[in-house]
Design a protein that fits this description.
Elements (H helix, E strand, L loop, with lengths): L1 E8 L6 H17 L4 E3 L14 H4 L2 H10 L1 H14 L3 E3 L3 E3 L7 E7 L5 E5 L5 H7 L10 E3 L2 E5 L8 H6 L5 E6 L4 H18 L2 E10 L8 E2 L4 E3 L11 E4 L6 E6 L2 H10 L4 H4 L3 H5 L8
C-alpha cells in the first residue's frame, strides 16, 4: 500500500466551506498519488476555533469547546471524503468533551466503506495537564482494517514503550504529533522509530507545522512527516522509509509492504518483538555494585 503522512499547517478560517475545501484539496492530492492511508496530525482540528472569532480562538478553554462542538460536522466531512476518494483517513485530533468531565484528545479513523472509530490519547504532556487540563481517554485499541492491523499512539504516547508493546500485533502504528520545538519533534520521532524497532512494524508520524499567533495552544509548531520501519531485512538500513522537509507543509509518501513486516518478524537479523519477554527475568535481578 502507499501511505501518506501530513506536515499540516493551520489556517484562519472565515467559513465552514473554506475548511471543507481545504480538507478536500489535501485528501484529493494524496489520493491522486495512490495513497490508501492518510495520516493527519495531533490538534490539527484547532483551526476550527477560528470560525468563532479571535476572542474564542485565543482562549484555551473557549477554543476547546468551540472545536468540540464542531466534531459531528467534522466526522461527517471525513466520512464523505474517505468514501469519495476510497481511502482510509486518520483525521487530525481534537479536544473532545463528552459529558460533565474534562475533554480528551481524540483522533478518528475512517474507512472507505464508512467505518469509523476513535483513539484517545493515553498520557498527557505537561501543557495538557497543567494549562489545558486535558484528561486521559479510553483504552488503547487495535483496528483490524482492509490494510492490516492499525494502532494509534498520539504524540507523547509514542514515547512510552509499554503502550507500544500493547500494540504488538499492529502492522502499522500511526503517530499524529504536535510539537512546539525541534527537541519535541525529535522526542516523538525517536519514540516512533523505537516502537518500529521493538515491534518490528511500520510507524507513521505526522506533524503540525507553522506559527499561529491567534492561538495560545498551537501558536508554534515544528516537525515534518516520517515513515519508519525496523532497520533490518526488507527495510532501509536507517529504518527511514521516507521523511519530509522540516516545517514544509505537504504530504510525505512511502510504499509499505505487509509481507516485509511478516518476514522481518519471522526471520529478521534480530527478533526484538519475539525476544521482548526475555527482559523480565533480567530486570528483576539488577544488582547494585559499589566501585
Amino acid at each position: 500500500m502507499k501511505v501518506a503522512t501530513a506536515a499540516y499547517d493551520l489556517d484562519w478560517l472565515d467559513s465552514w466551506t473554506q475548511y471543507e475545501d481545504k480538507l478536500d484539496r489535501w485528501v484529493s492530492e494524496a489520493a491522486g498519488q495512490g495513497a490508501e492511508l492518510l495520516v493527519f496530525p495531533e490538534y490539527g482540528a484547532m483551526e476550527l476555533s477560528t470560525l468563532d472569532g479571535a476572542e474564542v480562538a485565543g482562549d484555551l478553554e473557549r477554543s476547546i469547546r468551540s472545536v468540540s462542538d464542531r466534531m459531528g460536522d467534522v466526522q461527517n466531512l471525513h466520512t464523505r471524503l474517505a468514501k469519495e476518494y476510497k481511502t482510509h483517513i486518520l483525521g487530525a485530533s481534537a479536544p473532545v468533551l463528552e459529558g460533565p468531565g474534562r475533554p480528551v484528545n481524540r483522533a478518528e479513523l475512517y474507512t472507505p466503506e464508512g467505518g469509523q472509530d476513535h483513539q484517545d490519547k493515553q498520557i498527557m504532556t505537561r501543557f495538557e495537564r497543567e494549562d489545558w487540563d486535558i484528561a486521559p481517554g479510553g483504552a488503547l485499541k487495535l483496528f483490524d482494517t482492509a490494510l492490516g492491523k492499525i494502532g494509534v499512539l498520539i504524540c507523547y504516547d509514542s514515547e512510552f514503550p509499554l503502550l507500544g508493546r500493547a500494540l504488538q500485533e499492529a502492522d502499522l502504528i500511526l503517530v499524529p504529533s504536535c510539537t512546539e520545538a525541534l527537541s519535541g519533534y525529535w522526542r516523538v520521532r525517536i519514540g516512533a522509530m523505537s516502537r518500529a524497532l521493538e515491534n518490528q512494524c511500520v510507524t507513521v508520524m505526522s506533524s503540525l507545522v507553522g506559527s499561529n499567533e491567534w492561538s495560545e495552544a498551537v501558536d508554534m509548531n515544528t516537525g515534518t512527516g516520517g515513515i519508519f520501519g525496523p532497520p533490518d531485512t526488507g527495510f532501509p538500513e536507517t529504518g527511514v522509509l521516507a521523511e519530509g522537509q522540516l516545517n514544509k507543509p505537504g504530504w510525505t509518501y512511502a510504499e509499505v509492504d505487509l509481507s516485509a513486516i511478516a518476514h522481518v518478524r519471522a526471520d529478521g537479523r534480530v527478533l526484538n518483538r519475539s525476544h521482548w519477554a526475555e527482559q523480565d527475568s533480567r530486570v528483576d535481578s539488577v544488582t547494585l555494585c559499589r566501585l
